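Sanity check

After download, print the first record. It should look like this:
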Amino acid sequence: MKLVVQRVKKAKVVRVSDKKTVGEIGLGLFVLVGFKKGDTNEAVKLLADKLSKLRVMSDDQEKMNKSINEVGGKILVVSQFTLYADTKGGNRPSFINAEEPEKAKKLYEYLISKLRELSVDVETGSFGDYMQIEALLDGPVTILFSE
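Expected structure tokens:
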């Protein structure tokens, strides 16, 4: 599993097919998540816990010292299989290492449920759909996680 975590002032996901806003947050974390073949619920649970406690939000002195819950922020989670692109074989990426959509969706939903169990306010993208994303990065602060 790979996570790209970006601190944002605001972020929004619009499903292209119907132009509907499916997820939107103000202050918080915008998270792209990709699943590889063999990822487990246990790995998802560990990263959800780590993400909920990640101290990258600013305190009163503008130091990265607070978690998302400590600042009353939200997390916007969007599935992105392209995080497992393999470009070693040429110019067109292969996604052979990305998890199959049905299994990836279950892991994605499990991640969201685990974050909510940890009292994180979570918004989501639209799994498997073509989306447009707007994000106003803060910092910028970008953290990469991989399992």
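If your output differs, re-run the checksum step. Summary of this record's structure: The mean pLDDT is 97.
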